[in-house]
Write a structure and sequence with these properties.
mainly alpha, Four Helix Bundle (Hemerythrin (Met), subunit A), Helix Hairpins, 3 domains, two-stranded antiparallel ribbon, two-stranded antiparallel sheet, 6 strands, extended, disordered N terminus, disordered C terminus
Length: 418
């Protein structure tokens, strides 16, 4: 479980670093000493040290300081301004050369802010970024060494390069760089062409920056954590829905496809005339002869012609099933036959029951997560957050070392909390 490093653990790191700096010998000897060093660290249960430079904590953790909290507010405001300007600019009265100077100023100011933020985050990214388990703990130890500036090795540079690669390939960071680069590429290109138009299309990605707001919202973090914990149950329900959609789409297609009309090379709905001799809604009336109609007898000269069925295959029938099972019902496709209408009622009722199950599952998991968060709340002096279902304790930056040791979960000598 996550633990925060105490004073004795930091002393062990410093002593081991000194031993490694002063030691000489073969590569095997150095690897042996490093293995011994890592064993000492693991033996003292440095499971998840509080690593990362002050700059990284300032940019990523809005609870680390008051200044970091104000920085998160500024980031949210800039993201909101950038997104709102993008939406407003789509209005005909504000686009296409109107207010171009205003939009350019807003875009370049926001672009400068996002560029600086991305560069600082890339520079200060910890070595343990994106890692879990033993590799994360090993990288965290090197992170502590990096802060002292005393230790550099091939392993250190491997962690450094790989952490930057993981940072670059992160989904949100890819959105950031994809939203930033087109502006600079467009600035360097002087001749307009298809490539420039493609770059302008890519700029739409900047609207996805709204997802970054979730990083600063504990409520959204809790909701995302709930969805992750519910994924196993939701995947089972999704499989049931897929099976239901395929089966119902096949049945409704067989019921509503009508008869095959050779002249139109399509399915035609209904029989044309009901029991009382009246033409059904599936038929059109034409004055005079209609060449190429789909009437089965005397088609070329009859004034009444079949209406082509919209349930031409299982694919459009799937669209009808999805809109019906979610109780949306656009009305552009609907069954005409009595059997098809009965099936439509069954699909609607099945949809009500099926859609209620995911809500129930997520509600139960969300309630469990909220109770776990409340159970982790300390008496005073600390802040808590949910991370992957585990309650992590973060020491108050204003707190003293004695308070940290006092709240060490019964292990005041180590100064750490499980």
């Amino acid at each position: 479980m996550p633990i925060f490093v105490g004073h004795n653990s930091n002393r062990i790191v410093n002593e081991s670093m000194a031993q490694m700096e002063n030691s000489e010998g073969t590569r095997v000897g150095r690897m042996t000493r490093f293995a011994s060093f890592r064993t000492r660290i693991t033996a003292h249960k440095i499971e998840n040290p509080d690593v990362g430079s002050p700059l990284w904590k300032f940019l990523e953790d809005n609870d680390s300081s008051k200044a970091a909290w104000w920085w998160s507010i500024l980031s949210i405001c800039v993201i909101a301004i950038n997104s709102v300007s993008f939406v407003v600019e789509s209005q005909p009265n504000f686009c296409c050369g109107n207010y171009t100077l205003i939009w350019d100023i807003i875009n370049w100011v926001c672009l400068g802010f996002f560029t600086i933020e991305y560069g600082l985050r890339f520079y200060s990214c910890p070595l343990s970024y994106g890692l879990t388990g033993p590799r994360m703990r090993e990288a965290a130890v090197y992170d502590q060494m990096k802060e002292t500036g005393k230790y550099k090795s091939a392993i250190f540079w491997q962690f450094l390069v790989r952490s930057r690669i993981r940072f670059f390939l992160n989904f949100q960071n890819l959105i950031d760089i994809t939203a930033i680069l087109p502006f600079y590429v467009q600035l360097m290109l002087t001749n307009p062409g298809p490539g420039l138009r493609f770059i302008r299309v890519i700029r739409i990605v900047r609207i996805f920056r709204l997802l970054k707001i979730g990083k600063y919202s504990k409520g959204l973090k809790l909701l995302m954590n709930t969805m992750k914990k519910s994924m196993k149950a939701l995947s089972s329900l999704a499989l049931v829905m897929i099976l239901l959609v395929v089966i119902m789409s096949t049945i409704i297609w067989m019921l509503e496809r009508g008869v095959w009309c050779d002249e139109s090379n399509n399915y035609c709905s209904g029989s044309g005339v009901d029991e009382e001799g009246n033409f059904t809604a599936g038929w059109y009336y034409y004055v005079g002869a209609f060449q190429g109609s789909t009437y089965s007898e005397g088609c070329s000269t009859a004034p009444y012609c079949r209406q082509p069925s919209k349930f031409t295959s299982i694919f459009p029938s799937t669209y009808w099933t999805l809109t019906t099972i979610t109780t949306t019902g656009y009305g552009d496709m609907y069954p005409h036959t009595p059997t098809g209408k009965v099936l439509g009622c069954i699909v609607m009722l099945a949809g009500l029951l099926l859609l209620a199950l995911p809500v129930t599952v997520m509600t139960i998991v969300l309630d469990d997560r909220m109770h776990a968060e409340r159970a982790c709340l300390p008496a005073s002096g600390h802040q808590r957050q949910l991370c992957n279902g585990v309650c992590l304790g973060r020491v108050d930056p204003a707190g003293e070392g004695g308070e940290e040791a006092e709240t060490a979960g019964g292990d005041s000598k180590m100064g750490a909390r499980v």
